[in-house]
């Protein structure tokens, strides 16, 4: 049984990106820059923003943060996004989700310039991904999942049966599209799926992205299967402390599976590394536009 080390894989990816960032600076005088817009103070988002700002700067990119109050109106937020769209010194824009309930998330995502949409959430980018267009900004968590799977299984995923648990626009659907592009046979399951344990037992690879702590049990997993745990759930332990657990019953599943990603230290760090990669790609696209 292998524990897939997302922390190390993410570190290796960041080191490669740092070299490309330095080359871009010296050859073109361009330093990739990412702006994170945060509305209100959701604690889960704060953890993420803290890690992201530190890691963006550590690989030589510019990172800035715009904080808006929780009661900020949708039109003020949309104006802020428009200003960032027009600011040529900003290559990547990320609006932290979730947003307060009075703001329409889809309207906000639609306002981001698709070329600066480093989350890959804009309909133009999901459409490109759906069409297998290599120009898509690919969502970070799905990208991270595929990199971890390929690293463990050695690149060729042809014919592997993947069962994805969860059908969100940010993980379930895009990870299914990426794996389909890798020639996997993909089953997307969700809360209405019948006989979910039985369906999961067919899988060579399980991607758990439901957002329910320790939802996936040991007897759902075929012996030797690869288990990718996307969940980040904060639970209270018996001694009253908080800890992070995934969507997989980790202690039980490690017995029989072939490989598993831990939480923390699995998909989470890869999400941030892929965000940095998307920021670099967004910056590179502005250079190739300039030179022609
Ligand atoms: N527009 C937008 N894009 C996002 O990608 C996005 C977002 N909004 N809102 C919040 C969620 C959450 N998210 C995480 C990414 C990495 C870790 C991560 O690195 N986790 C560490 C542990 C962190 C800890 O110790 O708490 C790990 O799993 O090892 C966590 C959470 C991105 N999100």
TrEMBL record:
Q: Which top-level group of life is the source organism from?
A: Bacteria
Q: Where does NADP(+) bind?
A: 166-168, 232
Record's catalysed reaction(s): (6R)-5,10-methylene-5,6,7,8-tetrahydrofolate + NADP(+) = (6R)-5,10-methenyltetrahydrofolate + NADPH; (6R)-5,10-methenyltetrahydrofolate + H2O = (6R)-10-formyltetrahydrofolate + H(+)
Protein keywords: Amino-acid biosynthesis, Histidine biosynthesis, Hydrolase, Methionine biosynthesis, Multifunctional enzyme, NADP, One-carbon metabolism, Oxidoreductase, Purine biosynthesis
Write out the transmembrane intervals.
none
The record's section on SUPFAM superfamilies has: Aminoacid dehydrogenase-like, N-terminal domain, NAD(P)-binding Rossmann-fold domains
- EC no. given is 1.5.1.5, 3.5.4.9
Known pathway: One-carbon metabolism; tetrahydrofolate interconversion
Protein purpose: Catalyzes the oxidation of 5,10-methylenetetrahydrofolate to 5,10-methenyltetrahydrofolate and then the hydrolysis of 5,10-methenyltetrahydrofolate to 10-formyltetrahydrofolate.
Subunit structure, as described in the record? Homodimer.
Name the chain's protein.
Bifunctional protein FolD
From which source organism is this entry? Colwellia chukchiensis
């Amino acid at each position: 049984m292998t524990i897939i080390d997302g922390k190390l894989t993410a570190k290796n990816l960041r080191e490669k990106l740092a070299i490309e960032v330095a080359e871009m600076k010296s050859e073109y005088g361009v330093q990739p820059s990412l702006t994170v817009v945060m509305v209100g103070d959701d604690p889960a988002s704060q953890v993420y923003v803290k890690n992201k700002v530190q890691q963006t700067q550590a690989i030589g990119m510019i990172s800035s943060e715009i904080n808006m109050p929780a009661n900020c109106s949708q039109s003020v937020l949309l104006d802020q996004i428009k200003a960032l769209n027009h600011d040529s010194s900003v290559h990547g824009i990320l609006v932290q989700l979730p947003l307060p309930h009075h703001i329409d998330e889809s309207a906000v995502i639609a306002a981001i310039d698709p070329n600066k949409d480093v989350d890959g959430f804009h309909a133009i980018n999901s459409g490109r991904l759906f069409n297998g267009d290599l120009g898509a900004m690919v969502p970070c968590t799905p990208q991270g999942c595929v990199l971890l799977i390929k690293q463990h299984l050695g690149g060729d995923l042809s014919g592997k049966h993947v069962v994805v648990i969860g059908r969100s626009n940010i993980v379930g659907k895009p990870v299914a599209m990426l794996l389909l592009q890798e020639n996997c046979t993909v089953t997307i399951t969700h809360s209405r799926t019948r006989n979910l344990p039985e369906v999961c037992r067919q899988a060579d690879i399980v991607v758990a992205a439901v957002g329910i702590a320790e939802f996936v049990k040991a007897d759902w997993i075929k012996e030797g299967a690869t288990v990718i745990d996307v969940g980040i759930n904060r639970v209270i332990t018996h001694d009253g402390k908080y800890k992070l657990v995934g969507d997989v019953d980790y202690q039980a599943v490690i017995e029989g599976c072939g490989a598993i990603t831990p939480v923390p230290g699995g998909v989470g760090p890869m999400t941030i590394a892929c965000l940095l990669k998307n920021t670099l790609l967004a910056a590179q696209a502005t250079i190739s536009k300039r030179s022609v």
